[in-house]
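## Example pair
The file below holds two records. Each record gives the amino-acid sequence first, followed by its structure token line.
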Amino acid sequence: MSIRVAVIGAGSWGTTVAHLAAHNTPTTLWARSAELAEEIHSDHHNSRYLEGFKLHRDLRATSTLEEAVSLADVLVMGVPSHGFRESLEACSKWLRPWVPVVSLTKGLEAGSKLRMSQLVHEVMPGHPVAVLTGPNLAKEILAGQAAAAVVAMADEFMSSELQTIFSSNLFRVYINRDVIGSEMGGVLKNVIAIAAGMADGVGAGDNTRAAVMTRGLAEITRLGVAMGGDPMTFAGLAGMGDLLATCMSKQSRNRYVGEQLGRGRSIDEIIAEMHQVAEGVKSCRTVLELADEYGVEMPIAASVVGVVHGGDTAFDAYRGLISRKPTHEIHPG
């Protein structure tokens, strides 16, 4: 009997993951909008988020949560962090016991500072949790370009089953037991991507961007390891791989936000014109709170918070970073 997959959230990445899974097993995508669900179901397009891309002909879509969730053998959560808890609570009414939950969301819950996997454990106790993450740009995958991801889960047998569900010839899925590191890599790279975008916006060169990305990876690793992640995770797809793609790609929402900030635009103006969430905007302050809690210094992340939420300019941020006294590269202190 085939494993039935339900994907909650018809944004660009949720739709793409549903498209991938539909190649291997019966998959239903839930969209909040009935019109969008009908377009995906009948026309195999998502013109709101993925204009011009054809979706798998067997992918079903619905705007009725019970229809999507009640028969699911795997629940995939592709909603932004600010709506994650509410969506979990809604799904919990229909989800059968012990069904694994896979998070696609690269953010933290404001206030509680919880990772999405922690939210699943809190809202849906007893359900196994996995994280699917990596350097994955939705439009490139739908265009048929090769990519790779990691499914992180403590249970390797179950993660190998999930690996099969999401893999294709051009989308390779690896296994990693480090849920904390894999999840935090995805969260933290969004903040550094805003900084890299700011460098582009103020007209800095490739040397500056490379320095920001490299020192940003050091910050990601310090906090991730302090929280219990494996340092090797941050040198892999969930860490450096995701960071590189998000900092360099013109498709990256977080990089775009940083670039526009570097050009002098206000954060409110930038967010108002965007159709999708840039998670780094929401999570950067929470990241600094975690860094303070764990005693980890994150000057690049602090500079991003200053620009996004504190009224600083991108030029102010880079002047501040340049004026910092250099320390030991590998063992700062």
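Second record, same layout:
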Amino acid sequence: MATSNFTCRGCGSQQIAVLLEMGSLPLANAFVKDPSGTDDHFRESITLVMCEACTLIQIREEVPREKLFGSYLWVSGTSETAKKHAVWLSKRLRERHYRPGASFLVEVASNDGFFLEHYREAGFDILGVDPSNLAEEADRRGVPSIRTFFGRAVAERIQKERSKANVMVARNVLGHSSELQDLVAGIQDLLAPEGTLVLEVPYAFFLRNEIQYDTIFHEHISYLTIGSVANLMGRFGMKITDISFVDMNGGSALCEIVHQDSPIPRGDQAFLDFEELIELNKPCGWRYFTESVHNQRAAFVALLEDLARQGKTVVGYGAAAKCMTMLNYCGVTPKLLRAMGDANPRKQGLLCPGVRIPVVSPQQLLELNPDYIMIGAWNFREEIIRFFRDKMGYRNRFIVPLPAPRVLE
């Protein structure tokens, strides 16, 4: 089904095809302090669409970015997986891109500065840019950070105050930007002639093939393929020279991008051919996605309802934004899921948006004597299982909800 009431954020086209309609959902990070809170009363529809001109997959609806990112609870270094990734990535950047006298690194959407600290330890001269309260916290902690949305104006400011960037890092940010063309134009302007952009994006292949619909929420405005990244970068005079994959956010592509006139050759053709083969950048390639999402919801709710009838205590762990999407889309209430545990102290003591399930510490979660722990942050499932088995002594079962709900002993 096509719609003309929308302009693609990547290229301006109005040739749009609808891939999935999820209805009206609260903001995934609108956690509330108590039952009288109203932060989660605001709801907006979510419709996943594909631009048939540039192949960018995105949400049709848009929530003001100040409302989404002004105050942020999620921080980079909560999980052991993220900590290991920061060590690995900083080492990789050092080996591939560090040059004495040309080591100015700018990270776009630097969050709390956790990754920046690792880049500094690797020898880079660092600067972070992030629109949330976390940037100010990082700056006070001695991690140079600017609190603002990155774009052309910020790129000009940094060049005046510092210089062009030899290395730029943009992890899991391209998909968050409602001003996508301004963001990429700023990157193109700030990146030194021989500089490299290291771009990490959740790969939409996994969204489709592993039914990761829970990653579709208002903050995640776009969902990237190699094809759509190549098209976007090409419009701003840049090209992909290297692609690898990392086990972050359910499977992410790590792309190295340089200016178009760089002597380094393109390195994306094999991946473009693969995406053409599997029709990842065509609406017809997503024709069974809606049905798969509906099937997962039905099976997940049926499992929880069956366990409730048996008198089993089911809790969740990992109050990530993706989990909030799934709980609300599936209509999971405290009757089906007693509590959500999370290691992030910023979330403990709050209520999950929409469904109002309390968020507690891991220890408080086990005090409920659960028969099952539903792993909400399923992309960290191995880490979570090891934590509960080895450190917390939990001996009962786990539920992994996606791509299809299954019980693990």
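Notes on the second record: Residues 80-286 form a domain with the Rossmann fold fold (CATH 3.40.50.150). The longest strand covers residues 191-202.
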